Amino acid sequence: MDLRGTIRPDRPLLVLAIAEEAAHLDPELPVLLTGMGKVNAAAAVAATLARSPLPSAVVNLGTAGALHPGWTGTHEVGSVLQHDLDTGFIRQLTGQTVGAPLTLGDGPVLATGDQFVADDDARAALARRAQLVDMEGYAVASTARGFGVPVRLVKQVSDEAGDGADRTWKQSVDGCARLLARWVRDHL
Length: 188
Known about the structure:
Elements: E1 2-4, E2 13-16, H1 19-22, E3 31-33, H2 38-51, E4 58-66, E5 74-76, E6 79-82, H3 87-94, E7 102-103, E8 109-112, H4 120-127, E9 132-134, H5 137-146, E10 151-160, H6 165-187
Parallel strand pairs: 2-3, 2-4, 4-10, 6-8, 8-9
Antiparallel strand pairs: 1-3, 4-9, 5-10, 6-7
């Protein structure tokens, strides 16, 4: 976890997984780098919100894989689900709903899980439920909501999830970071 800048109640906290995704953001902005994955993201956001003044919002920026051919660009997520948690089975087993999808507004569905989707079969299965896939969004959204802080998820498509996505991501991450920084300048 790495926090730069000062968190203030009158400005949003930008949350990203890794430095490569934040490379072109204004260094004066409050930026939290959580590390990859849901556990790292949830722990870093919770620890930061617990010991700092609450920001006006939490904005999770980052790269995402496209689950459908032709998806490109920057997208504000409308809802997010956990693709690696079987909420239906848990509800059937315990009678409790754990990890239900979160509605954030209008926009595409993001599937979050701790697996980097670099397999065509996994991509096809996820594409039935979502348009984009990442590794932190659900954890950031759930944690921010737990603290009563508004949250937005903004994802830049870096690759078409599936075979070869790992190579494509490495080649595109700097360009994605530039586009995310432009989104911040234009929308925040």
